[in-house]
Design goal:
The protein is α/β, with parallel strands linked by helices and 125 residues long. The protein has a single domain, classed as Alpha/Beta hydrolase fold, catalytic domain (Rossmann fold, 3-Layer(aba) Sandwich), CATH 3.40.50. The strands form two sheets. It has a five-stranded mixed sheet with strand order 1-3-2-4-5, with helices on both faces. Helix 2 packs across helix 3.
Length: 125
């Protein structure tokens, strides 16, 4: 892992990659049961956001654009095409930002306990 790369796990196989993004002060292990379940039929990635879990902090404060950029960078680096990004709480904002930064890699979004608004704009794909 590069010094500034996101800590992540990569499990399973399948045509529809699923990328799980946690909320504020959480970590990738919070998706343990979802990763175990979906990796039986899908390629699954879960990551620690910068400054969370085992991922290094890239400076402070980090705006949503920086968190989203880190996720966009990860899905691009892993060559995930047409991935579904799943975000919980603050992770909802992050996956929406990642979608804006790497739209060619994203097939859809799942927002769990968050908002669908991004700085006053509704994101529709």
């Amino acid at each position: 892992m590069a010094d500034d790369a996101l800590n992540h796990i990569h499990r399973g196989y399948g045509n529809l990659p699923l990328v799980f993004v946690h909320g504020f002060l959480c970590r990738l292990q919070d998706w343990h049961f979802q990763v175990a379940h979906f990796s039986r039929s899908h390629r699954v990635v879960a990551c620690d956001l910068p400054g969370h879990g085992a991922s290094p902090l890239r400076g402070w404060p980090l705006p949503a654009e920086a968190f989203g950029g880190a996720v966009a960078e990860l899905i691009t680096r892993l060559n995930l095409h047409r991935a579904v990004l799943l975000g919980h709480s603050m992770g909802c904002r992050i996956v929406m930002e990642a979608c804006q930064q790497a739209p060619e890699c994203v097939a859809g979004l799942v927002l769990v306990d968050g908002k669908r608004f991004l700085t006053g704009k509704v994101l529709v794909r």
